[in-house]
Write a structure and sequence with these properties.
single chain, 219 residues, alpha/beta, Rossmann fold, 8-stranded mixed beta sheet, 6 helices
Length: 219
């Protein structure tokens, strides 16, 4: 299998690349032109481009089996970021998928996506634009999966963290290490039951351990 990952230099994106490589999956890292790639991934095939550049994006997505979209606007004073990245940016990536005939797409979104009255919306209505990005993907053209994680944690000691998997609009609080989100993305690639599903994920040491495959049966 060969996949492309956009936002591959981000805090979640580089972990997705690492988890893919562990499984023997070939990766095209797609990053912004000035982004820094972590040292251990510098030998992984990398495309430095703007999502706005149709030609370069199409080239990066040719001959891959799936795209994982890990791009996302950061909370900042630039209130236009969520609209540009989480909605228009996703739309442009999906248009590229159509042009090259790529059907399998996994999108990393967020818990509470679509909720208006939420503190995160102080940063350019980010949850509203993420919902619009999700809706662009929920299309019969694609074999899609949307991963909605809770608050993202940087910790790498995940042995005691067990994931709670639920269907959409079920969880409204909680957190999860970025490493586990990355693992969820890779698990989705290899499990057809994840197609056309929104999967909400948080984690805790108090949760019962459940396999991704078994969890999908109830989603």
């Amino acid at each position: 299998m060969k996949i492309a990952i956009t936002g591959a230099s981000g805090k979640t994106g580089f972990r997705i690349t690492e988890e893919a490589l562990k499984k023997g999956i070939k990766v095209n890292q797609i990053v912004r032109k000035n982004s820094k790639v972590t040292e251990n991934l510098k030998n992984t095939k990398t495309y430095r481009l703007s999502i706005d550049n149709k030609y370069e994006l199409d080239k990066a997505l040719e001959d891959v089996d799936a795209l994982i979209i890990a791009t996302g606007a950061r909370a900042s004073l630039d209130l236009t970021g969520p609209a540009r990245v989480d909605a228009l940016g996703v739309y442009r990536q999906l248009q590229s998928c159509k042009r090259v005939g790529l059907k399998r797409v996994i999108l990393v979104s967020s818990l509470c996506t679509g909720k208006l009255f939420h503190p995160l919306n102080l940063f350019g209505l980010i949850l509203i634009w993420k919902k619009i990005g999700e809706n662009f993907l929920k299309n019969q053209i694609f074999d899609w999966t949307i991963i909605r994680p809770g608050g993202l944690k940087e910790i790498e000691k995940i042995e005691s963290e067990n994931i709670e998997y639920t269907k959409e609009d079920t969880q409204f609080k909680g957190s999860i290490p970025r490493r586990l989100v990355a693992k969820c993305c890779i698990d989705s690639l290899t499990n057809k039951q994840s197609i056309n599903k929104i999967i909400e994920v948080t984690s805790s040491s108090d949760n019962k351990k459940v396999s991704f495959k078994k969890a999908l049966q109830s989603i």
